[in-house]
Amino acid sequence: MARVILADRRGLRPCRRQVTLFFGVAFALLGVRVFSTAIERPAGGVRLDSPCVVTQLPVGTDLENGPPNSGGMLRAAYGDRARLAIVFSDGSARILTSGFESACDPDISCDATHLLFAGKRTAADHWNLYEIAVDGSGLRQITRDLGDCRSPRYQSTLYTMPPLTTIAPQPAYQVTFVGNLANNVNEYGAQAATHLYSCKLDGSAVRRLTFNLSSDMDPVVMPNGRVLFASWQRSRLDHGLLGRVGLFGVNIDGTDFALFAGYEGRRVKHMPSITAGGLAVFIEADQVPWDGSGQLSCVQLRRPLHSYRQITRESDGLFHSPSPLADGRILVSRRPADGSRTHGVWRLDPSSHEAELVFDDPRYHDVQAKCIYPRQEPDGRSSGVTEEDPRGKLYCLNVYTSDLEEPKGMTPGSVTRLRVLEGVPWETGQPLAERRILGEIPVEEDGSFKIEIPANTPIELQLLDADGMALRSCGWIWAKNGEPRGCIGCHEDGELVPENWFVDAAGDDAVDLSPPSEQRRAVGFRRDVMPIIARKCAKCHNQGKTPLDLDGDLAPVQGPDGKVPLGRSYENLLAPAEPPGEGGALGKYVHPGRARTSPLVWHIFGRNTSRPWDGAAQQEPVKPMPPAESEPLGDEEKRTLVQWIDMGALWDGSASATVRETAQERANP
To answer: Which CATH number fits domain 31-377: 2.120.10.30, 3.40.50.360, 3.40.50.460, 1.10.1660.10?
Structure first.
């Protein structure tokens, strides 16, 4: 048997038996769907109790040798020329998708009789969703005319609170999938942004579930019926300009979007899978190769925020697409990190780290293997979403309840107001989404608030101090139609239960923060900040008189796309620090999204405005500006500069070319 013990804390253990991990596979096509012969296995090789379906991606695709994608953060959208095959325990195999140019992303029904997959009949087609019986019969198409639809997953039963919705007035089984029906572009680069959607098994009742402005992907349904998925979070600029890809959960109607696992470990976590032993196993990496492979890690379903554990190390190779087995072990694809071999399918025990090779066809990357066996159906979920209601409610019990290890600086009274920002999706390639102000409201003395916001709209919350600076900001969140969404605090520990008390905001009506679109104000450099610089700063900061040149001129600098003019003053303010900060996000004068740590703000306020949780920034010296003989900035001018930085430091809707290029260089060394 091909068996190794992967590295644990004591390093890589020796193999129990030295065998050649080579599988010669001679697939001779016998008919429309069926091919043989048996897969050659090493002596005593692993034989699974049940057949499994696997995606076979041919070796030599353009993606394997292509440039890094999305700043090295996300895998490419692969699958062209792939096929689905069922491999039986005796080594025989059957092609399920011989009529397709490409097929991948399989998911097995709970009764093990059918499977979903994404396929293209011809190379020119969009990816559509299909269902087929495991014996190859009864093929039927589910989606049509929705663009590319990928990663279908069987949902649990959706129950509605009749007659609140017209989407699914009766209990129904549905499918979760990944698509881009909104035709938006990621916040970073020109790659299409993907979101989670659902529909019935006949393709009707299509509903969008997630409203993140960067990509959501890799859904899997948990035993409680919620969907676990990977979400690229870029609005949290404290993670760097590239942000992070984390694991989040959402109900199957799109409500109650929330962080599932913490930010320990590497900056990209994706391809989650739920084991029979109660683990969420996933792939993680800092720099993602073309196929998205990386190391295996896990958290416990019962305590996902405080149970992170690494399963493999870099010396064990690269792993891809884990899936559960009935006994608590997993199937996972594995290849050497140097690319010398293709992905083969292994059986791995997350507890003992013991791994056994199942099969490997050297002509293909064998990925997305899933064993075909009956399993318990996830819990059904109810929904009170009212599609006709254009708004949702959001309330918070106490903004001072947080995950800060050192809460100094976030004591009661330090937060004076709440700023609510709307994220505007891009329809063309731009690096950062524009933010518009929906409103600012005072926070109650006990830290509570209750607001009404536009439904299905990306929202960012910022807690403001007395100077109007954001103390903390959240990632993109949203409320569905009619959803009353609540939270304990801001960045609070989601595994803790709040104290039982009646908060001040509970006795008030929700503050309406749904102004008409024309009243939602953005703050841009050219329109709002440059006039301040021309009046108050350009006199001294021009013609090389100071290290920072602010010439008061809006003369264009060639933009990154060849069309967008960017002013010299803007580029100089957004110049990168030396050495650059994490992900290229920290500039020499301006930190987009964080006015409180920006040296420009320190200069005009005459003090270091960073907070204890900002680390080394608190130790930086401050040179007050402007000089005593110059006219200082007024309160409203300071407020405008702070808003501009906290909202991303945009130039009329596009970020600095210098900052973006620096981030790209760091991501693709």
So the answer is: 2.120.10.30
3-state SS string over 408-423? Answer: CCCCCCCCCEEEEEEE
Are 188 and 214 in contact by the 8 Å Cβ rule? The answer is yes
pLDDT band at 225 (very low <50, low <70, confident <90, very high): very high
Distance CA 435, CA 655 (A): 12
Q: What is the pTM of this model?
A: 0.88
Distance CA 461, CA 473 (A): 6
What is the residue extent of each domain of the chain? 31-377, 388-519, 525-667
Q: Which pLDDT does position 556 carry in this prediction?
A: 55
pLDDT in tens, 390-436: 999 999 999 998 888 777 778 899 999 999 999 988 754 445 678 89
For the segment(s) 388-519, the CATH number from 2.40.50.140, 3.30.930.10, 3.30.470.20, 2.60.40.2190 is 2.60.40.2190
> Six-digit token pair at 104?
């991948």
Determine the 3-state secondary structure of 612 from DSSP: helix
Cα–Cα distance, 159 to 155 (Å, whole number): 12
Residue 595, SS3? helix
Residue 204 is given by DSSP the state -
Nearest Cα to 132, choosing from 196, 84, 91?
84
For 9, residues 6+ apart whose C-beta sits below 8 A from its C-beta are: none
Q: Which of 97-101, 116-120, 543-547 has the highest mean pLDDT?
A: 116-120
CA 81, CA 104: separation in Å to the nearest integer? 9
Distance CA 463, CA 400 (A): 10
Give per-residue pLDDT as tens, 313-327. 999 999 999 999 999
Lookup: tokens for 217: 């992907």
566-567 and 449-454 as β-strands: parallel, antiparallel, unpaired? unpaired
Q: What is the pLDDT of residue 145?
A: 92
Average pLDDT, rounded, for the chain: 82
* pLDDT tier for residue 301 given thresholds of 50, 70 and 90: very high
Q: pLDDT, tens digit, for every residue of 302-314?
A: 999 999 999 999 9
- Cα angle 10-14-16, degrees, rounded to a multiple of 5: 130
- What the block records as the tokens of 601 is 């703000």
* Backbone phi, psi, residue 612, to 5°: -55, -35
